[in-house]
Amino acid sequence: MNLKQLSHMLSLSQTTVSRALNGYPEVSEETRRRVMDAAKRHGYRPNPSARRLATGKSGMIGYVLPTGASVDIDPHFVEFLSGLGDYARAHELDLVLSPADADDEETTYRRIVANRQVDAVYISSPRPADRRLALVNTLGIPFIVHGRSEGLDFDYPYLDIDNEGAFHEAARLLLQLGHKRLALINGNERETFAIHRERGMRRALAASGLTLGERHIRSVTMTEENGYRAARRLLEESDPPTAIVCSSLIMALGVVRAVRDLGLTIPGDLSLVAHDDVFPWLRPENFPVPLSTTRSSIRLAGARVAERLAARISGLEEGARGEVWPVDLVVRGSVAGAPV
Amino acid sequence: MNLKQLSHMLSLSQTTVSRALNGYPEVSEETRRRVMDAAKRHGYRPNPSARRLATGKSGMIGYVLPTGASVDIDPHFVEFLSGLGDYARAHELDLVLSPADADDEETTYRRIVANRQVDAVYISSPRPADRRLALVNTLGIPFIVHGRSEGLDFDYPYLDIDNEGAFHEAARLLLQLGHKRLALINGNERETFAIHRERGMRRALAASGLTLGERHIRSVTMTEENGYRAARRLLEESDPPTAIVCSSLIMALGVVRAVRDLGLTIPGDLSLVAHDDVFPWLRPENFPVPLSTTRSSIRLAGARVAERLAARISGLEEGARGEVWPVDLVVRGSVAGAPV
DNA sequence: AGAGCGTTCCAAAGCGCTTTGGCTGACTTG
DNA sequence: CAAGTCAGCCAAAGCGCTTTGGAACGCTCT
């Protein structure tokens, strides 16, 4: 059933039927009802390929997926996706994942924009002066950044959480508990979120006249193993930290293991706070010692990004609005006063 | 730059240019070279929307993503995706994720097929008599199943791992070590992989004249918390198992925690084997006691599925070929002789 | 009554590609 | 030498939608 057949059986022109269906004003209410009715009764659905060719709109949102033999997709991605899917489903939006060589995403962005494959894209894990942002910005495709960049000479729409504030609060709590030697096990230092977290911690320390020594900060990709290694190295130094703030639950698993291996205890010898993106399959309250966390649901962020992308596509949202979500600090058993 | 312009500047018809570019034989080699050359020089890329409308082919592969407020996307998904992306990137295949209500995926399958949104789909986590398989089979879209169904009256192409064999081997090892009371902490019992794993274990036990009591088998979604709960319940019974086989590393985390909470040790009081899908961020050798595993890279499976989908799209693969990968049994410190 | 206007509809021209059906001219073949 | 073959090219007809530029009609207003 296509437009031609439908319009023929209604004795109307394709134009009128098309307009009726798409809510244009130059159709009488009666005709519109008649058309809508017939369309529903015959299960007419406009062919998206044809619509696409005519309008250039695809009804899909895009994501360039960095891949490569040595590139691992972040497990956070799947939670973000859950949220995105929640929203997208209700609006019949599909998501196109365009795999790209992690060393050359630019080509892929150009391709999907030139081909008009998607109506909007989102960008995640931005870095300072991230070239992808400059690119999509000049290419003129609607986009939203999940996270923030820095040092760009233009504004852009984003959704981020208050990483700096979160880690500032975490550090402040530890300082109030008397800790003097804090350490940070962070994510990839080239990504903005890690920079913000470090900044937040430094700011809290500075307020107490302390600093974060180079030796007390580790930037690694977020695996259990890296958490373990980083913690071991920190704890085996001559002046080991009495508190660690850690950028992910997965790394925190490694930290806990390292603490055990060294015969230490949490929170007796070490206080631990980690950032929790709220995974259904790994919860901080279920750690051997319930873990204090800075918490923010990455899934909700996914849903919100989808919502805003949809708004941008339909022209409801414009400009470079940035949105920063506060982060909860949830105190559980893994923090205590500094050992004497 | 479109076909019309290109053909005009070559003083050729659109037909000839199109044929030259798409490798049709009725074009002289010289002309073809000239066309190819000009196309490359001017960076001509056929408009996919137009091609799509004309051919009905989209150059994308699809996946229906079950979503819903209470539906969590499996973290395995992201690893599978990594593999899929690895292959897809090299072939400029994009992946379309169509979010669907988890209770009604059928509508979405029908939609993406009717709309010709994708050239092929893959289906994961199949169940016995899975209606999705019957559906895509009758809809006539090329597809591959990651996993297997059962009790269907037609054959279909799939890629699966030998779950039954893997768990058979794991159980056999434990039996050889003198264990008599084995338990299984399995994934969702409605999915075929879980059924196969249980079957494998039962077969091994039966060969030793033993059985797997209903109380010694738990089917839960794969979270750390569920692993913990299941293990506690098993270990607090009157005749606790001396060995557990577990369907995922994430649940194994919970098992380890439960063992600790109960003041028991691995492998002294309990031997543990888990299935490892090979996540980069959580490795069995890094468990407090290195974990014995049945191992199969889900990432490689993703790449292979993409490869076969591409082959099906281009007509290189046909029929209902099933492919079953063997699974390694990797013995590490978490298994030992049964306690006396 | 005739001009002017808004409403409601339509025919036809795209969008940029693939593919059908032919046409031309050179080359074999009996 | 006429008929047949074949390589190599082309014009035009789709694919199914949106959108442009009217046209027809019934009103109101002077």
Write the layout of secondary structure elements.
Two copies of one chain form a homodimer.
Chain A: H1 3-10, H2 14-21, H3 29-41, H4 48-55, E1 60-67, H5 76-90, E2 94-101, H6 105-114, E3 120-124, H7 131-139, E4 143-146, E5 158-161, H8 163-176, E6 182-186, H9 192-207, E7 217-219, H10 224-235, E8 243-246, H11 249-261, E9 271-276, E10 292-295, H12 298-313, E11 322-325, E12 328-330
Parallel strand pairs in A: 1-2, 1-3, 3-4, 4-5, 5-11, 6-7, 6-8, 8-9, 9-10
Antiparallel strand pairs in A: 10-12
Helix pairs in contact in A: 1-2, 5-12, 6-7, 8-9, 10-11
Chain B binds a DNA duplex (30 and 30 nucleotides) through residues 2-4, 12-16, 18-19, 22, 25-28, 31, 46-56.
Shape of chain A: elongated
Strand order of the largest sheet of chain A: 2-1-3-4-5-11
Please give the radius of gyration of chain A in angstroms.
25 Å
Largest interface: A-B, 60 and 60 residues
CATH topology of the largest domain in chain A: Rossmann fold
Oligomer: homodimer
Count of discrete alpha- or pi-helical segments spanning 4 or more residues of chain A: 12
> Number of DSSP strands of chain A?
12
